[in-house]
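Hi F.,

I've been meaning to write this up properly since the lab meeting, where we talked about keeping a consistent format for the predictions we share between groups. The idea is simple: the sequence comes first, exactly as it goes in, then the structure tokens exactly as they come out, then a line or two of notes. No screenshots and no reformatting. I'm using this chain as the first example so we have something concrete to point to.
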Amino acid sequence: LKTAVEALPAPGVLQDIEAAVAYAAKAGKVGIVGYCWGGLLTWRAAALVPGLSAAAPYYGGGMTSPEETARQPKVPVQAHFGNQDHWIPLDTIESFKKAHPEVEVHVYPVGHGFNCDQRGSYDAEASKLARERVLAFFAQHIG
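Output, unedited:
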């Protein structure tokens, strides 16, 4: 399904995210969180979707590729990665950090999917710390 959605002509699935953000914005400032492919979409939304106030991608697959790193976020971003993620090599995370000093990047000693308690890669300690960081980040930027 992801491959089919990624193959849609621009703006693809971002139009759905834009509609959700516009609706949620009726109640106030909007933040976005996404995991894995959702993390990649969160990063894209930070650069392309109007109406956001903050974004927090978790282990966004593809987010550290040169094409995605070239995007410029329009809102504050706090990103979360694992240094043992076999899908997102540490050297690409380091390149991403260098290209985006404005992005708050946290790297944990864990693998991909560390926040999902339904996976073997779940790490309660990293998940708790990341959640605390995201909540503080959103409190600062969304209030």
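Notes:
The chain has one domain: 30-141.
The longest helix spans residues 124-141.

If this format works for you, I'll send the rest the same way.

G.
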